[in-house]
Amino acid sequence: MNLIVIGLNHRSAPVEVRERLAFAAGGLGEATRALLNAAPLHEAAILSTCNRVEIYCLATSAAEATQAARQFLHDHHKLTDSVDAYLYEHHDQECIQHLLEVACGLDSMVLGETEILGQVKDAYQVAQQAGATGVVLNRLFQKAFSAAKHIRSSTAITRGSTSVGTVAVDLAGKIFGNLGKCTVMVIGTGEMSGATARALQSRGAGTILVCSRTHERAEALATQLQGRAISYDQWPTEFPAVDIVISSTAAPHPIVTKEKLIPLMKTRRQRPLFLIDIAVPRDIERACGELESVYLYDIDDLQQIARENMTAREREIAACQVLIAQHLQRFAIWLESNRTALEERYRKRTDASPLSKPVHTHAS
Amino acid sequence: MTDRTFLWLAQVFYAVSCVLTLRRMRAGNSGATLQRLNYAAMAVGFALHTVFLYLRGKADGRCPLTNLFETQAFIAWAAVLFFLLIGPSYRVSFLGAFTAPLVLLICLAALILLVDVVQAHPATRSAWVEFHAAIAILASGAFALAFVTGAMYLHQERQLKRRRLSSSFLLLPSIEQLDTINIRLLILGFVMLTAGMLGGLVSYHIVGHWTKPKIIWAVSVWILYGALVLGRGLWALRGRKVAVASMASFVLMLAGFWGVSLLWP
Fold first, then answer.
1. What mean pLDDT is predicted for residues A62-66?
2. What is the mean pLDDT of residues A108-122?
């Protein structure tokens, strides 16, 4: 009896391959049942995200099972060529280890990201509802969830933002606390400034103002962000009420200078001002950051912090692996001590009916 | 076992709180369990501290503010009281982290440096004198916490300005929140100090004597904090300047207290 994972991820396969093998969320339960019918598996679950497609399964013969699973992927997605070169396989201990690493975000493109745990939970739930999981996978997934929770809370693997937009949001949070009363002004309508404004909005930023040299583009972005478009000449008048500025114009020279800012800071009575300059060449004179209560970050500053956070996460990998090894061992011991009984039970089931049905917890 | 033993025991728990804090800073995650342990250590320290003040008050036969040692212990007690009250209600994480070392410093300085004579028969006794002294001490407790939030503000602000973030940056409160709590503590302390000064005026009429340096010191402290409180409205005094000023004011107040008490006993 073997535990097996077979699949591909962002490292083993390019997006052109991954998208062909991805399962539609709505059809996942049906696909899992089809897999159980097509392959000699006792239990199975399919995890399908934009970065990975993986089949976790329990089978008597690893060789037969993997062969059948590969065939299933090929047939189900009506592939005409072989994708074997992109698929990896892990058996038994390595399979357990792999699932634990995936659940913790150690195997993710952005190390330590937390979205994956929700995706694994969803995948498990679908498989369970499809009646495809039994004693072993039920326990394996439950243990993976508690291991991920444990590792997240006792290491710093998820800490610190790792993208420019989220770093900006973190900084805004540590300046203003609650962003609900903050007014954000977006100057210039680049893709990155829109993304940063959206990130601030998702953290509760109050009013959003958009201005651009081309008023139509300002209108378009303002509509997207449910904000208000203002004309380009208007921004100095609106400035005293603004708390956060995201600037990304194509202007060749700084549009906000220290000289312009000094009188404006007086009118805002020294309330903090967060300036995010993501334009190259820069829109905001570096000297502005010297003023009291002004916090200026340019694209390099934000990227530098994102990189440092990523490095800090990488330093946590070893600590995560230690905890993973503990959880892995506990599960492996349980599996070994129940192996004979489980094998016996699955053998009987297979004898009784050609299609093996998962052994459910209540049966044990 | 003297009453001082309880004050020493309280210091042990404040020290435990300091160690727990360092562990939380190192761990770099919010450490809910450590935070609760930290609060518990402060609470136990506070209880022992209260036992000290109670026993000393019984020995003195009045509010235990008869010498510099007792007032220092009382100010530290008031600081812990304000921490226990505002820490959880404002959800200021790591407020205890910065409070415990300050309290420990004040108490240890008093325990080690100061001569502590129990005055069985103080020269003057009056309810007004006690009210005046006690409420002024509570005001000092609020100012001590303003010192603490000021220190936290500067710690966070420095990182924001230098664009270099330490592992504890995300765990500490935002500078706006610290600024808000700071000004509220200053206002609260100033109101209590004003009440204490008025009480002092009344007790002067009853007791009929006063030491000039102490009056000059008290009025200076009152003006200093008054300027800080009014400064926000008048000159948009906020943020970094208030943080620095609330730290400097507290140090000046304590230093002045020591100076006046030691030079003109």
1. 92
2. 93
